[in-house]
Specification:
CATH topology of the largest domain: Aspartate Aminotransferase, domain 2
CATH class of the largest domain: Alpha Beta
Strand order of the largest sheet: 2-10-9-8-5-3-4
Catalytic activity: O-phospho-L-serine + 2-oxoglutarate = 3-phosphooxypyruvate + L-glutamate; 4-(phosphooxy)-L-threonine + 2-oxoglutarate = (R)-3-hydroxy-2-oxo-4-phosphooxybutanoate + L-glutamate
CATH architecture of the largest domain: 3-Layer(aba) Sandwich
Main location: cytoplasm
EC number: 2.6.1.52
Bound molecules: pyridoxal-5'-phosphate
Number of domains: 2
GO cellular component, one term: cytoplasm
Helix content: 25-40%
Pathway: Amino-acid biosynthesis; L-serine biosynthesis; L-serine from 3-phospho-D-glycerate: step 2/3
CATH superfamily of the largest domain: Type I PLP-dependent aspartate aminotransferase-like (Major domain)
Amino acid sequence: STNQRAFNFNAGPSALPLGVLQTAQEQLVNFNNTGMSIMELSHRSKDFEQVHNEAIARLRTLYAVPDNYEIIFLQGGASLQFSMIPMNFLQQDGQADYILTGVWSEKALAEAKLFGTPVVAASTKDHHYKHIPAIDELNLNDAAAYVHITTNNTIYGTQWKEFPATTAPLIADMSSDILSTPIDINKFGLIYAGAQKNLGPSGVTVVIIRKDLLDKANTHIPTMLKYSTFTENNSLYNTPPTFGIYMLGEVLKWVEAQGGLEKIAAHNEAKAKLIYDAIDESNSFYVGHADKESRSLMNITFRLADEELEKQFLAEAKEAGFVGLNGHRSVGGCRASTYNAVPYATCKALADFMVQFQAKH
Ligand code: PLP
């Protein structure tokens, strides 16, 4: 039943809106009176094509994506984008600027080294990735093939609040904060995101790409790893992840029903504030990882000043029904992921639990 829903703070895959799951359940064995599940329909059928095209159209409207951008659906997760980007846009002797703000940007950089000469244009590694570099600290090369950033650092809990105006195309991994707030798409050459946080189940990767980049792309690469294969075939060159695209469409309808991205952003701020306040008002019983001005509204990272108490906190939280509060295996500590679909009441329950735990100890 719906009141058995967990307090789900998983970092990804993460919580989906209950209404979306219920719609999927209702439609599971007989989609749109076809007598078939959406998973059983041909990807060339008119029923599926409508789902597919509507998902693209909804995303275009929500973000006001201009006509000179294509929206495509790929597979391979955000991780395959780490390779596809340099494979398509970097020449062997070409440079690309990478800004390091955490493990995911390091992984993107490592893949680029296989294809060309990426340059670290800024890094906050020496500061344990506690903050996002200031825009005037970026050592950007105007002649670079592109500039790569990670807009939200899922593991460290930091998030870019404003984006640099770059001469080279700005490429952004938005896996963990896509659809969390309005953004000006015009600032970007390419945006990518694995679906499994704010967009739906894992299995589909969304890419928004400015059309002029396609003309400059390398051509001697595998068909399935070319962006143009997807833009030229409306993401239907081969069998797409049909169920994932259907679920993405339902999540986009849900975002619309919430009032769009402005409303979603305000909601996310209110949710995150509950938990950040519990940290800030704890007299350093809880210690946030991120510097305040770089704090993520999607992943709230913190430790307990006392290591033994931290273990107890995580154990008692688990006992109380909170899921996914352990920090990433590479950094430890605690992390509450408060993506779009995590309800306010769930965040309130965690903030209350944190205050009560502190009072007890
Ligand atoms: N980039 C960011 C910011 C992430 O948070 C993640 C994953 O969890 C990834 C990339 C990797 O995504 P995927 O598992 O879809 O390859």
